[in-house]
From TrEMBL, chains A, B:
Protein name: Sporulation protein YlmC with PRC-barrel domain
Pfam families xrefs: PRC (PF05239)
Top-level division of the source organism's lineage: Bacteria
PRC-barrel domain sequence ranges: 18-90
Amino acid sequence: MSSTLGTGATSEIEVGADAIEASRVNGTRVYNTDGDNLGHIYDIVIGKRDGRVKYAIMSFGGFLGIGEEYHPLPWEVLKYDERQGGYVVGITIDQLKDAPRFGAAERPNWVDADYGRRINDYYGVAYY
Amino acid sequence: MSSTLGTGATSEIEVGADAIEASRVNGTRVYNTDGDNLGHIYDIVIGKRDGRVKYAIMSFGGFLGIGEEYHPLPWEVLKYDERQGGYVVGITIDQLKDAPRFGAAERPNWVDADYGRRINDYYGVAYY
């Protein structure tokens, strides 16, 4: 582990300290600021060209996949919390009820900018 | 599909046009500029906090996981090619032989900045 504190390498530390395989991000729990466990990360959506993580797909409810719903959350609303070992979002369970979501048999068209804008608008995040 | 051409929304088109679930990026073939099939994407490595895709882990060789090797490639060296439906990298098969790699039983320490710098140096990509 390199020690680069105090060398102005803040961004380097941030880059190195939290790198993880996407396959291991899946399954990470998502909490709200009240400590409620809202669900877990089911998958992430990335831009093939820009290499930016755009959405975390959070699974919510259901049992063994039955009745499970998926909420795409703009990556920007998720804050990783080392202490809880999960992501924290400023979303109440009530707010999730009206949020964009899809069922297990559906697959959103991630290429549709209108859909992307609807998700980001819901969470007050700029779409770009 | 929204039509935003000519509205200065170039970046928006790029964002929307290539969004895909990380789980579906896995398996995408990787070619070099000579058209050789070098392998396929096995996983990607992202920064949990900055949401940036740092590495694509390319699997190379092997059969049913036996003798398979994994090469972490800086995301910046991969160019997605719609026509081939895969990524193209400017790397020869010979160059891969000396490239940073790991076996099926190993797992690199992605948090180690020295390791990250070694990968990026090998491919001539700035580490940050």
